[in-house]
């Protein structure tokens, strides 16, 4: 809500707080501090003092534990509260901060000359826009340009910041400040622009995956039903990846002839675009829509194109002043959480991720809490588990400790992490499939049985290289390589060595399965927004309520082990 009448409504509070602020101005408390510039980044020049930056402030949630336990209960098939998802107003009421707390923070912003017109309160988040010189005074810090050479991006960041001591208990974090992570596609290379050969197609499903292969392998029936608003399939698009209708239509004509009347809509979020004439790589976006929609019969599919990432550095030293510094996850999550219940997707597929260790725990916890809020409202959120196997082998905290390092958001316990398999007979875990244990989130109770079984098999191997008490992932695994995909008029094949390599393939079509599973529930009279019971909670109790759907669960950590069929 905008604050046009803030001063009139809160005049006494404003005057009292400004007096208090003047009295304690020298008393600040540090919120976050990095010991050094994160690996892969280097510090550059100072930005212009007049440059405007949009900031997001998260208010501390003191009832988050109670809320998250409620989410676990309503998502667990054998719990009495299973399927009793919350409405938007219920979630907002349960998690909203005290008006007195948000008022204190807003008054502080106003006392620091933050324009009232730029301040916006959205649940337990407050956004505001301010110049570099102003925010440096407010947060007792200095901002710099930081350069990331591998992906050729730069960002305006700081290594630490502080807030008034009286407000410190109420402020969880402020973004963008110390957040240096890089959002990446969960695949390793671009599509090789060459036709798929007749020999490749003739080799069969062991070496070439098409929609028909997946239908046969996992027992997915062709069905024809009327599309329902409750069966919305959402596909996330970031990093200027655009789903191209021309490629989609042609792919269906070749590989999903019974679905040629299918389509998808596009929703743009915070500067996202629908550029149907883009000449940039759109393999990921095209792969996602081509397989998700060709397998999920008659669903209402939407591609959500979200803007915001570190700008590309051409032959200049600084980014364009108009470049957005908004972070895609945060902007997308706020968009979804503000939607009415009937406009939410039932399933949301994501093929993007970051290294968990590149993100501060405060950011990871804050955004995972937003995923939990979507789950509470009945949205099944799927993320690729990543393409780095168990992850990098060295911590970035200065200790240089050898460690298996997880990815995020796959490590969030309120999303379903999808690992990768290959081959048909037998089907095996693919070597690059991400998996491991979170260094931030403890293992949720629903994983206890599966993880204990894994540890029994593992014995003492790799002791000390992972967090044995952390949330394990991936939750499920499915075919993730050798997919035929069309991009910019050419067909190519995902694969181990030459073209696209990545777990995102498995994530997007598993999302299609999840959408079909929801429809299956509704046919037999289950809850309108019954959670996709297969993942991750069915892993604990060993059941799948399905309509001829088979799915695979990875062995929590995908290190040379075959997936296990859930029965």
UniProtKB/TrEMBL annotation:
GO cellular component: extracellular region
GO molecular function: metal ion binding; serine-type endopeptidase activity; tripeptidyl-peptidase activity
Annotated CDD domains: Peptidases_S53, Pro-peptidase_S53
Main location: secreted
Compartment(s) where it occurs, according to its Swiss-Prot or TrEMBL record: Secreted, Extracellular space
Residues annotated as the enzyme's active site: 284, 288, 505
Reactions catalysed: Release of an N-terminal tripeptide from a polypeptide
Named cofactor requirement(s): Ca(2+)
Annotated SUPFAM superfamilies: Protease propeptides/inhibitors (SSF54897), Subtilisin-like (SSF52743)
GO terms under biological process: proteolysis
EC number assigned by the record: 3.4.14.10
SMART domains (UniProt xref): Pro-kuma_activ (SM00944)
Enzyme class: hydrolase
Signal peptide: 1-23
Peptidase S53 domain boundaries: 208-567
PROSITE patterns linked to this entry: SEDOLISIN
InterPro entries linked: Peptidase_S8/S53_dom_sf, S53_propep, Sedolisin_dom, Tripeptidyl-peptidase_I
Alphabetical UniProt keywords: Calcium, Glycoprotein, Hydrolase, Metal-binding, Protease, Secreted, Serine protease, Signal, Virulence, Zymogen
PANTHER family documented for this protein: PROTEASE S8 TRIPEPTIDYL PEPTIDASE I CLN2, TRIPEPTIDYL PEPTIDASE SED3 (AFU_ORTHOLOGUE AFUA_3G08930)
Function: Secreted tripeptidyl-peptidase which degrades proteins at acidic pHs and is involved in virulence.
Record-given protein name: tripeptidyl-peptidase II
Natural source organism: Penicillium fimorum
Lineage: Eukaryota, Fungi, Dikarya, Ascomycota, Pezizomycotina
């Amino acid at each position: 809500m905008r604050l046009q009448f803030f001063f009139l409504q809160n005049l006494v509070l404003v005057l009292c707080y400004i007096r208090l602020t003047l009295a304690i101005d020298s008393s600040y408390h540090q919120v976050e501090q990095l010991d050094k510039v994160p690996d892969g980044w280097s510090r550059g020049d100072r930005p212009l003092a007049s440059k405007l930056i949009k900031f997001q402030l998260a208010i501390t949630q003191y009832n988050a534990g109670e809320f998250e336990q409620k989410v676990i209960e309503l998502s667990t098939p054998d719990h009495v509260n299973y399927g009793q998802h919350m409405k938007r107003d219920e979630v907002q009421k349960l998690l909203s901060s005290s008006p007195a707390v948000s008022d204190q923070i807003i008054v502080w912003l106003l006392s620091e000359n933050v324009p009232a017109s730029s301040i916006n309160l959205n649940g337990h988040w407050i956004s505001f826009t301010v110049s570099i010189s102003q925010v440096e005074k407010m947060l007792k810090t200095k901002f710099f340009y930081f350069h990331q050479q591998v992906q050729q991006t730069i960002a305006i960041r700081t290594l630490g910041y502080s807030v008034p001591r009286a407000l410190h208990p109420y402020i969880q974090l402020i973004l963008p400040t110390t957040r240096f992570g890089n959002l990446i596609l969960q695949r390793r290379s671009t599509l090789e622009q060459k036709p798929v050969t007749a020999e490749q197609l003739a080799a069969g499903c062991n070496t070439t995956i098409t929609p028909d292969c997946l239908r046969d392998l996992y027992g997915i029936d062709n069905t024809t039903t009327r599309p329902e608003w409750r069966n919305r399939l959402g596909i996330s698009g970031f990093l200027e990846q655009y789903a191209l209708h021309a490629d989609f239509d042609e792919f269906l004509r070749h590989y999903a002839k019974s679905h040629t009347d299918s389509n998808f809509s596009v929703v743009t979020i915070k500067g996202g675009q629908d550029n149907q004439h883009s000449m940039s790589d759109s393999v990921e976006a095209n792969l996602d829509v081509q397989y998700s929609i060709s397998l999920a019969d008659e669903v209402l599919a939407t591609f959500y194109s979200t803007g915001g990432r570190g700008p590309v550095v051409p032959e200049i030293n600084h980014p364009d002043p108009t470049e957005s510094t908004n972070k895609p996850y945060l902007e997308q999550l706020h968009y979804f959480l503000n939607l009415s219940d009937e406009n939410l997707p039932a399933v949301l597929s994501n093929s993007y991720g970051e290294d968990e260790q590149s993100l501060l725990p405060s950011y990871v916890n804050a955004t995972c809490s937003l995923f939990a809020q979507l789950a509470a409202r009945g949205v099944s959120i799927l993320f690729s588990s990543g393409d780095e196997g168990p992850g990098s082998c060295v911590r970035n905290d200065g200790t240089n400790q050898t460690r298996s390092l997880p990815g995020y958001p796959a490590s969030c316990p309120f999303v379903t992490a999808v690992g990768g398999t290959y081959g048909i007979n037998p089907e095996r875990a693919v070597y690059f499939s991400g998996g491991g244990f979170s260094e931030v989130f403890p293992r949720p109770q629903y994983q206890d049985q599966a993880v204990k079984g894994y540890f029994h098999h593992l014995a003492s191997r790799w002791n000390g290289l992972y967090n044995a008490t952390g949330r394990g992932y991936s939750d499920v695994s499915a075919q993730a390589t050798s997919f035929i995909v069309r991009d910019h008029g050419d067909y190519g094949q995902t694969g181990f060595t030459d073209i696209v390599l990545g777990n995102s393939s498995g994530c997007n079509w598993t999302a299609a399965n999840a959408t079909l599973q929801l429809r299956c529930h509704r046919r037999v009279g289950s809850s309108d927004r019954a959670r996709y019971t297969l993942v991750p909670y069915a892993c604990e109790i060993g059941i799948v309520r399905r309509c001829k759907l088979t799915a695979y669960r990875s062995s929590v950590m995908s290190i040379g082990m075959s997936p296990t069929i859930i029965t």
